[in-house]
Specification:
about 35% helix, Rossmann fold, 2 domains
């Protein structure tokens, strides 16, 4: 199970702990003193019963079949089997025969983590386990509940907020967006629920605070690039701009509204977001700022309906926001985890949008082309799009040349073929290539 003390180390001053506020769906945490002698309960200290045992190998086949029956892709079917097989398997790197009870599954944004998790959950529920599903945002809980009903998985989910102080018990807990699992609220939740098995789902298992995600197994079978190559995620073009000031970002969108289309713009602070919204509204653009206090459901619905052209946000839309009609995402300068989460909003396929757009500042610490190859790359300077790297026209030219080369018979210059056709005869040896010799 999770080693809570490892998760807690190195993130708070000694003598302090996190305590969640009264709203179970908010992400605001307050820091309060920890009383002397007070400590967090380690779920691993509780003796947990084992449910799967040798049946895990049979259940892994069932998980694969269940994923296939519900339209799961090849990698989802394989991962479903991998996860169930990993539970109760020996922990890698341990000298003893310690048995695993947790697994972290890494699937890119848009790769179907929820569908995969429900396939596994339905299989484990069939083995008699009670299933819990935990998330930090209410949108994620609504999504899993809706997908469970829409695809007919039939899982009796116990939906739990990460900040719930009285969670219901369960035998297997799914942690949605499991990169949050290293926080103190998750540790408290684990202590209260004491699940026998924990399965984490995430696209970004990286944390800038270096907190450890203590799972026994880490499983992955795909990447953003592989899903784009296979046609499951949309290809994209990358645009770099020289400034991320709110006025400059707004001016960039206003100069090319047709190229960018429906967009989400991310900033670090609310003040910067408000300034960008003011600039766009002054030019007649229908846009709104999305925060923790606004009606996000209404804003997202109006954006999907086309009533809003641009949404400006800080962190509210980095998880749980999935709109295939989104054409462009403006990714603020950030580290790898937030960059992947922000950019991942735009890669869902749409029949009218064969290629999406990711816009970043030239000085961002994590350019997205490092993670996935763009179809085209541009630098936008003084309103001019300057192409760098490969373009679609160059790709077509290369493919055409390769096609011509593959169907043409190679011909060498006569200077090379003449030397091959004539063999030099040794002294006293007859050569058929020399007509001056007599037989």
């Amino acid at each position: 199970m999770h080693d809570v003390q490892q998760q807690m180390s190195g993130r708070l001053p000694q003598g302090f702990r996190h305590d969640s506020c009264c709203d179970p769906f908010t992400q605001r945490l307050t820091t309060v003193p920890m009383h002397r002698g007070e400590s967090m309960t380690n779920p691993a200290q509780h003796a947990q019963p084992r449910w799967l045992g040798t049946a895990s190998s049979t259940l892994s086949t069932q998980a694969c079949d269940r994923s296939r029956a519900h339209g799961g892709r090849d990698y989802q079917q394989a991962l479903a089997a991998d996860v169930v097989q990993a539970l109760e398997a020996p922990i890698p790197g341990r000298a003893s025969r310690a048995i695993a009870s947790s697994a972290l599954v890494i699937v890119p944004t848009g790769g179907g983590k929820t569908h995969l998790g429900l396939s596994i959950a339905a299989t484990l529920q069939g083995a008699g386990l009670r299933i819990g599903w935990c998330a930090a945002k209410r949108e994620l809980l609504r999504q899993v509940d809706g997908e469970n009903r829409r695809f007919g998985f039939g899982v009796e989910l116990r939906l739990v907020s990460m900040f719930d102080r009285s969670p219901p018990p369960c035998d297997c807990l799914f942690m949605d967006e499991a990169h949050h699992d290293a926080c103190a609220s998750s540790a408290s939740l684990m202590a209260a629920m004491a699940p026998g098995y924990v399965i984490g789902l995430t696209a970004t298992p990286y944390r800038t605070d270096q907190a450890r995600l203590a799972y026994n197994h880490v499983l992955r079978r795909c990447s953003i690039q592989s899903l784009q190559d296979d046609g499951y995620l949309a290809p994209y073009r990358h645009v770099a701009i020289d400034s991320w000031a709110p006025d400059a970002v707004a001016a960039t969108w206003l100069a090319h509204p047709a190229e960018f289309g429906k967009s989400v713009i991310f900033f670090r602070t609310a003040a910067a977001g408000e300034r960008c919204v003011a600039c766009l509204r002054a030019a007649g653009v229908a846009c709104e700022l999305v925060t923790g206090t606004t009606d996000r459901d209404d804003q997202i619905a109006r954006f999907a309906a086309g009533e809003l052209q641009v949404l400006v946000a800080m962190a509210c839309l980095t998880e749980g926001f999935n709109d295939p009609s989104l054409q462009t995402v403006f990714v603020r300068p950030a580290s790898r985890g937030p960059t992947v989460q922000m950019a991942g909003r735009v890669f869902r396929m749409h029949p009218d949008l064969p290629i999406k757009t990711v816009v970043q500042c030239q000085r961002t610490p994590m350019p997205f082309p490092r993670l996935a190859r763009p179809r085209e790359q541009f630098v936008l300077t003084d309103g001019i799009w300057r192409s760098i790297g490969a373009t679609r026209q160059l790709d077509l030219l290369v493919r055409s040349m390769r096609s011509i080369a593959s169907t043409s018979a190679p011909t060498l210059p006569k200077a090379f073929t003449r030397g091959r056709a004539r063999r030099r005869a040794r002294p006293g040896q007859f050569s058929a290539d020399r007509p001056d010799q007599e037989s």
